[in-house]
Amino acid sequence: MSLSTGVGFSEHRNPAEAGRIAAEQALAQANMDTPDFVFLFGTIGYKQEPLVRAVRAATRGAPLSGCSAEGVIVPGAIHETNFGAVVCVVKSDEIRFQNAAAQGMGTDAVAMGQKVGDALALHEVDDALTLVSLADGLTLNFDAMLRGLMYKCPSLHSIPMIGGTASDNWTFTKTYQYCNDDVFSDGLVATLIRGKARLVTAARHGCVPVGEELVITKAEKNRILEINGRRALDVIDEYLTVEERQGDWKKTNVYLAIGVRAPEYMKHYDDYLIRFMPMRDDTGGGVYVPTELAEGTRFFMTRRDHEKIASGNERLAEEVRTGLAGSDPRFLLQIECIGRGQVIFNDTEKQQLLRDVQRNVAKDSRLWFGAYTYGEFSPVGNVNSFHNYSLIVTAIA
Fold first, then answer.
1. 3-state secondary structure at position 266
2. Which residues contact 2 (CB under 8 A, 6 or more apart)?
3. CATH code 2.60.40 region(s) in the chain
4. What is the fold of 207-304?
5. Strand, coil or helix: what is 49?
6. Residue 21 neighbours by CB under 8 Å, 6+ apart
7. DSSP letter assigned to residue 2
8. Closest Cα partner for 205 from 316, 130, 73?
9. Which of 339, 335, 171, 172 minimizes the C-alpha distance to 254?
C-alpha cells in the first residue's frame, strides 16, 4: 500500500515555463513518471490557460484540479507575487482521486453544485475521505453550493469538505478555476478523495471582537441590508478609522470582518465564525458576504490580532499532530486567507509563522503546498463550514 507525493514550484514569468518547471520538479521529487492526479495553484500574473496546458503536458495528461491565487505556499516559504506556481503530484494504490466541475455560481449555486455532485455520484460513495472544493471567490454562495453538492446525500455533512476560494491580486476583478484542460470563472472544481487512509484537518482564525453586539435586521440571501434597523453600511462605517473610510473598500475591508457567534459544537474551534465582506453596495447601503446570514443573526465586528493568530497556529499544529497519532503525513495541503499575509505582516513575520506551523505539524515539510484564498472551507465538529481570515491544514497519512 502506498501514497507518493511530490511538490514543485516556479516563479518563472513565462506561464508555459513556470508550469513545466513546477511539474517536473514535483515529478522528480516523487520519483514518478505519470501521476494519478495533479493539483495546481497559479498566481494571477500568468495567462492561466498556457500555465495549465504546460502542467498537463508535463504530467502526461493526468487529471488536474486547481485555481488562481493571490499567493502560493511551498515548503518553507510563502510567495505573494503575480508570478508563482506550485504543483503537487500524487500516485497511490490505496486512495483514488476523481474531479468534476461546473459553472454558474453567481446565477444558481445550488444547480451548479448539483451538477458536480451528480458527476461525482457523491450519494453513492461509502469510502470518502474528503471533497477538496475550489470555488470562485467573487461569486461564492457557500451555503447554496453546499446544498447543491450534497442534495442526494444523507446530510450536508456526509462527506468532509475542505478547500477554499480562488483569488486574484486584491483587485476583486476575476478569479479562475481549473479542471483538467478547462480554465473558467464563476464556478467550482471539486476533487473527491476516497479510500483507506488517515485524514486530519484543522482550522483556526485570529480575529477578536470589537464594540457592541449587533443584529442583522434585514437581509436577502448573502446580502446584508440593515443592521440594528439602520443601513448596514452606515453601521459598518462607524467601526472604520477616518483613513479607512476614505480608502478603497477593496483594501479597507481586510481590516474589518463580521464575527458570528459559533454554535456550541464549535466552541473548541473559537467563539466566533468570521465572515469577510468582499463587496459593498453604496446605492442600496448593504454589503455582500460569502454565506447566507439570516435576519436576527447576532454578531460582533472583528479585527485581526497578531497574538491570536500566532497562538491559533500553535493550537492548530497540536490538533493535527494529535490526529495523526504518530503517523507521518504523506500529503499536506494548506489553505490560508490572504488577509493573514502581507497586508498585516512584514515578510519576516509571515515566513516565520509559516515555518513554525510546518515544523510543528510534520518532521518533513517537503510535501507541503497550498494557496492564499478569499475564503476557506473545513469541517468543524463534523459540520462543513465556511471560514474567513483563517488557516486550514489538511494532512493524509
1. helix
2. 91, 92, 93, 94
3. 207-304
4. Immunoglobulin-like (2.60.40)
5. helix
6. 8, 10, 12
7. -
8. 316
9. 339
What is the predicted pLDDT for the residue at 1? 57
Beta strand residue intervals within 177-206, DSSP E:
177-179, 182-184, 187-195, 199-205
Please tell me the distance from the alpha carbon of residue 253 to that of residue 375, in angstroms, as a whole number: 14
User: Mind listing the pLDDT tens digit for each residue in 229-265?
Assistant: 999 999 999 998 888 887 788 777 777 899 999 888 8
Which of the residues in the chain have pLDDT under 70?
Answer: 1
How far is Cα 375 from Cα 107, in angstroms, rounded to an integer?
Answer: 19
Please provide residue 300's backbone torsions phi and psi, each rounded to the nearest 5 degrees.
Answer: -120, 150
Hey, which residues does 259 pair with through a beta bridge?
A: 274, 300
Residue 378, exposed/middle/buried by CB under 10 A (0-12, 13-18, 19+)? buried
Structure confidence at residue 281 (pLDDT): 87
Integer CA distances (angstroms), 300 to 54, 90, 241, in order: 46, 42, 17
Closest CA to 37 of 250, 159, 200, 195: 195
For 318, the 3-state DSSP assignment is: helix
